[in-house]
From TrEMBL, chains A, B:
NCBIfam families: thi_PPkinase
The name this protein goes by in its record: Thiamine diphosphokinase
InterPro entries: Thi_PPkinase, Thiamin_PyroPKinase_B1-bd, TPK, TPK_B1-bd_sf, TPK_catalytic, TPK_catalytic_sf
UniProt keywords, alphabetically: ATP-binding, Kinase, Nucleotide-binding, Transferase
Pfam family, one: TPK_catalytic
UniProt enzyme class: transferase
Annotated GO MF terms: ATP binding; kinase activity; thiamine binding; thiamine diphosphokinase activity
Domain Thiamin pyrophosphokinase thiamin-binding: 144-209
Length: 215, 215
């Protein structure tokens, strides 16, 4: 399975997870995220952003370590994160799109990034997105039936209805089970746990964010 | 104006803002948030939580500095944050309910706390809630017309549609204006700025989170 790794520019480097280095994978650096990748020895397929909080010397480091650099005006309709996904859709046909550097700092940025999945233009890539930081892994699911696997280092798992949900079922692989439950409004069902190595979940309508997390 | 201050138990003490100490105000401490208040000299009106990650000595500190302590079983349907708001609605009739200690750490916790406003049982207090940390202030608005004031230390302001929105208007107090725009799905309109000391915004349907933030 090949992946596109996108390092966003969150200021909270304490929560950053660095992507794995794999020959078949691709790397996008967004604004300060491009600098973080470049300084850590990654060769970046595409660096983009307005780079307005970066020095000229730092910009040079990014350019030297990037196949391509695209600079935007600071004032534009899309956020840098949205633009990175527009390019991801256009130029990188990977099975997974993994996002790093999205946590900490500005809450409006975080909410905007998570709410990207509500935008119709990104619907085709929603289920390929994975958000990773030190204590959380988030994936999105469209209606269907799925076998989920426990991450060894994570204690909790949570099912977040980004929309109303119908017939949500969690089988005995989970501590708290559900049997065809309906939820009329977006609801966060958090702090569930795997009691086995895996568990099956299914639902008929809506969009679910599944998060594995630890304290 | 009197306020109820609720300190939640987020592990990220770097982002914590401590509430002001005012004689007419009330204080709720939730789990480790109760310890943080007690250790910082606050006399707490109500401490609650499962306290399962706190030592006996720490529990004593909380008890000594609290008017009332309610301990829950760790396994319950509501989160500690939800329970604190249930008690807030029942016992504290303040004009504002200000939440602290909600950021950092587990993303499922954060999403759950922000999504509390989607739950019908909390509808009556949605517009009294304020979320504060070091870099963000968040308030919720129901349909209407409002004059918003710039916080001197915050550069950005963002309008987040928690639902579809109709006839969203932002007047010339803001850098990016809108005139009766409709949004068919939840959308984050972020990184706007005040260009004057205040600005008027209005909308006819939906729920808006207004965030002032800084890097």
């Amino acid at each position: 399975m090949n992946s596109l790794h996108i390092m966003l520019g969150s200021p909270d480097s304490r929560q950053h997870t660095m992507p794995p280095l794999k020959e078949q994978d691709y790397y996008i650096g967004v604004d300060k995220g491009a600098l973080l990748l470049a300084e850590n020895g990654y060769y970046i397929d595409l660096s983009l952003g307005d780079f307005d909080s970066i020095t000229d010397a730092e910009k040079l480091i990014i350019e030297k370590n990037s196949k391509k650099v695209i600079s935007f005006e600071p004032e534009k309709d899309d956020t840098d994160a949205e633009l990175s996904l527009v390019y991801a859709m256009q130029f990188f046909d990977t099975e997974q799109i993994i996002l790093y550097g999205w946590s900490g700092g500005r809450l409006d940025h975080l909410m905007s990034i998570l709410m990207i999945v509500m935008q119709p233009r990104f619907k085709s890539i929603v289920t390929r997105l994975i958000f990773i930081n030190q204590t959380n892994t988030l994936k999105f699911y469209l209606p269907g039936s799925y076998l989920l696997f426990k991450e060894p280092d994570k204690k909790y798992c949570s099912f977040i209805g980004m929309t109303p949900l119908s017939n949500l079922t969690l089988d005995k692989g989970f501590k708290y089970t559900l049997n065809n439950n309906n939820f009329d409004y977006p609801i966060a069902l958090i702090s569930n746990e795997f009691v086995m190595e895996n568990g099956r979940f299914s639902f008929d309508d809506g969009l679910v964010a599944f998060i594995q997390s630890k304290d």
